Structure formats: structure tokens, C-alpha cells
# Entry
Amino acid sequence: MAYLLGVDTGGTYTDAVVLDDTKQRVVASAKALTSRPDLALGVGAAIDAALTKAGVAARDIAMVSLSTTLATNALVEGQGGRIALVFIGFDAAELTRAGLQDALRGDPVIALAGGHSHAGVEAAALDLAGLQVALAALDAGITGFAVAASFATRNPAHEIAVRDMIRDLTGLPVTCSHELSSALGGPKRALTAVLNARLIGMIDGLITACETHLATCGVTARLMVVRGDGALVSAAVAREKPIETILSGPAASIAGASWLTKQTDALVSDIGGTTTDVCLLRDGRPMIDPAGARVGPFRTMVEAVAMRTTGLGGDSEVHVTEGLTAALRLGPRRLMPIALAATQFPDLVHQALDRALASGVPASDGGQFVLPLWRVLPQGLDAREQAVAQRLVDGPLRLGQAVQTRMENPALGRLIGRGLVMLAGVTPSDASHVQGMQDVWDSDAATKALTLFARRRTGGGQQIAPDAQTLARMIIDQLTAQTVDCLLQAAFAEDGRDWPDPAAMAQHPLAQAGLDRHRGIVRIDMALALPVIGLGASARAYYGAVGTRLGTEMLVPDHADVANAIGAVVGQVQMQASGTVTSPGAGAFKVHLAGDVQSYSSRDAALSAIRDALTAQATAAARGAGVEDISLHVAQDITEVDVEGQPMFIEAKIRVTAQGRPRIAAG
# Structure
């Protein structure tokens, strides 16, 4: 028999599942808490538990595949390493385009002369001397570099030269924009490179943790990683291009949802600890976003499933909105639930909550705790960051103890953004413990935390809730409302009718009246026309009310809590190579490949050459990923204009896709 091992690392849980590839059935599954900063602990615990429950020997595992939401969560929450952008041949104003300035979050920019023209001709000499000076002036704490040059997809020479110098002088990882996309649009390519550079350390750590544990327990099978479009790639590719793993977990969940339910047309809603991801399943396949994956506020150049990702999950932060009446809002930041924190630090959490409850007044810090996530006190901190970090050296503290002045609040925000500390506070997971919907963690601590939170005041001076049970119901109702909103937005966006603004339509009073089944002088009904497949560890607890509100069938299949891990091993390898042919003048044709520019005297010769080169590149990548039976698909988009009755060649974009199932050796 051939057994497959799927692993999915999310913000809260790491899941592992063993599948019998011959009988196409789930043999066993297991969960473990995602462990930070040492991801190996959670990965190892989940894998070991799944193999033990399955009764399968390590040598019988024929393939391992990994999916993750860590990259997606990091972008939604504004986390990741501190990077520097080398910006070559661009005006300063270009930094304000495509969300690039927001993505940088104050990280340094090294602006250099250089870059190329649309035809791939050098526009200005590259200032390598200036780069050397700028690198020497950077402060400590930089974890990687992003390099973007003007028209690098037409000629990547300047990006390559800068990359080589940075690696020689710093030894740090470097992401070049031309390696991530062959499309034009410098600022958007730069944005994608910045996000990739920010994620490298995180994804490398996860893959290393998985590989190390597999080797320790005797699994010798190849490790694959799920890309954002649902395809499988080798671990080496994922390490180099971690940006391609954004929406990896959601893409795997779509494959898992289809495999588990056999549905071909449905909305899939996957609730995790940090995000809710909604995607349309049509004809058994997820829709692909042609404009590039959007995660949080950023539109990247990464091809991925057309997923609407919202910062709403079981561990979302609970906010009290301003106003005279009590109203709540969830997310987008993830907190460690108080119920979970109390299982890890029982004395600290219970004693602090008891003291706060005894005072009889609302806690000024909301009853939150600050948890350090480092092994060694981090370097490169400014004075205020250092002051906060130093107080946390001996372990977690109440928020009011960790941050002692208003000026230190931004410093704490930066530490959270860099993934160095985490907040624990009230979340929907705590509310579900109070309501008895979950009991995996400390329900007493959750009740204390919600009792304390309920004492907070509205703008009218009233408590937001009389007790923990009432507040818990309010939080769960709000999660239902925001989930319904996510699904309605996705439905309007994918409906086929040209709705002007899906978000506005979902929140329109007529839509809300329809969901209320309004019966007045006017009768209004509204419902989804497709079933919803609910996935995630908490889907069964929360999603019944969502289906009722939307007037549709809610399917929560068996193994819905590990659908991502299942989807990770039922996909195919899909390797792509793309390039462009341009014509700078009559009888001149240039082939632009990832690391080369070649000239030809005829259109047909250029097209033939680029197809051959891309086919060889995609095929080699697929074979390297373990595919033997390769299926090739060539897509080309040729732009020509008619001039006096004769076609004039402008540009051709060619993409070759090599795909197939990775080789699975039966045990």
C-alpha cells in the first residue's frame, strides 16, 4: 500500500492526516498546537500522533505534502522580518504606488541609478558603488533584501548584479522581482518582492522544522509544498519563493473540500484561528484570480485561487466599537485566547484575572497579556522596544505591566508586527468555552476574562454586558454576522452580474432585510443559490447559524477540521515558465527569459525559440519535483496591429505549464 501524509500549519493548530492512496480514504488524523517560536514541536507532535493512530510505519509513507496559512496570516496581521528594498531606476513617487509604501512599514529603501527600457536596453549605468555605501550604513536587524529594477522583466541584469553584491557582502537572503513575475508594473513587482523577502525566514523555518522531524522519525519520502493556486511544488521552490505559499492553506482546503464532499459547485468557507477564507468551487475546481492574489490590503503578482481572505477567526481580537450602545467588532488581529494562555501559564493568568475582578472596575489594559516569542533577546531594537522587551525577559506580563507609558504603545506594536511578542486576550474561542461549545482549554479562565471584559463601558456609560454568558452570546453572534458578510461579498463578486460594489451590496439595507425575511408592506427574501461547505476546527460549532441566516444548505463534512491537510496531498504538481517576445524595430525580435535576452531576425524563429526554452524549463522543474508522466500546456497571447493591411508584431507573452502527480512509491 501507498500512504500519503498531509500536514497543515495554521495560526493555532498544526494538523496531520494519513491517507490510503489506494483506497482513497482517510486512515487517521491528529492535531497539535502550532508552537512558536519553535514550529518543530507542533509539527512533530501532529505527525507523530497521526502515524501512531494510523498504525503506519514511517517507511510506508510514499509522499509528504505541507500547506500553511502562516504566510497569509503574516500579511493580514502585518508581520514578518525587517527588510530593505533596493529600488533601481525608479522615481521616488513610484514608492507611493500599488501599496508599496504601506508594505514597507518604514523599512529602509536604497534608491539607485540604473534600470532598463521597455526594449531591454540599459537606461542608466548601475550605481554599485552607491549600493556598497548604503549597505554599510544599514542598522542591525535587517533579515533580508528585496530588489526591484525598472523593466527588469525585459532585462534582469541589474537586479542580478545587485543580488550578487548583497549576498557577497551580507550573506542574507535576496529576492529579485523578476524571479517572481514576468509581468510589467515595477511598483507592483517591488511590492511582491518586499512581501516575499519579509516571509523568507518564517517559511524556511517551517519547512526546516518539517524536514528535520520527518528525518528523525524515519520518513524518507519527498516533501512537497502547496502553492497558492493549489498546485504542489518542491520544498526548495517554496523556500526560494515563499510568497507563492500565500493562500496555500486555503487552496489546500478547496481541494480537501471537493475531495471530502464530492461537490462540484459550492462556496467554501474555511475558518481558522486568524482568518476566514472564502472561495467559489466551480466544476470541481477553484476559481483563479487573474489579477493576482489579494491578501489583506495588498494585491500581489502571485497567481492564486480567487480567495477572499478576511481577518476573522476563532482567535480574533474582540473590540468594543465607539457609540452609546454596546456593539462589538472582531479582528483582524489574532490573539492567543485567554483559555489557551491559562493552560500554558495557569498561575499567572488566574492570579492576574482574580486581582482585576476583585478591584470592581474595568481593567485599563482590557485584561490582556503580553507573551514573548523569542529564544534569545532580539537585536536591533530601538530604546523603547528594548525597554518593553527587557521587562518580558522573565516571561509573560499583564499588558499594563509590559507597557508603562503611552509612548511605549507604538514600540509594542512594532514588536508584535515583527512576530517577537504576542498578545493574549478575549476571543470567540473564549466565548465558545463560556457557552460550552468547546472545552479543550481552560473554561474557568475564559469566564473570568469575559466577566472582566463585560465591565467595559459604552459611550452612554453602561456596561457592555451584564455577565460573561451574555457577552459570550454577543461575541458568537458577531462572528456569525461577519461570516455572513464574508460569504455575501464573495457571492456578489462571483455572481456573474456586474454588481458595482460587492462589499456595499452585502451590507445594503435591502440585502439585510432579505436575510431577515422581512414581511411588511414589502416582502423581501434573500438566500444563496449554492450550498456552503464549512471547514475548520470550529466550523461545526459556528456555521449552523451561518447557513440558517443565508437560507442555504451548510455542509460540514467529516474531517472538516483537517481539510487543509487532506487537500495538501490530493493535488498535482504544476510548474510554469513564462517569457515575452518584443520587437524593438522592423526585422528585430527579442526573447526575454528570466535570466537572459536573445535576439532573432524573424517572428517565427523567436516564438519557436521561446516555446522550446520554456518547455525545457517547465519540464525540468516538473521532473525535479518527481513527476514522470508530464502533461504540457502552452498558452500564448500575441499582440499585433494592422498597418496598411499588414500585421505589425507588438508583443507575445508565452507560458508553458508542465503538470502531473508526483511519483508515489508503494510501500
About this structure: The chain has a mean pLDDT of 89. The CA atoms of residues 22 and 283 lie 24 Å apart. DSSP finds 21 helices and 31 strands in the chain. The longest strand covers residues 646-660.
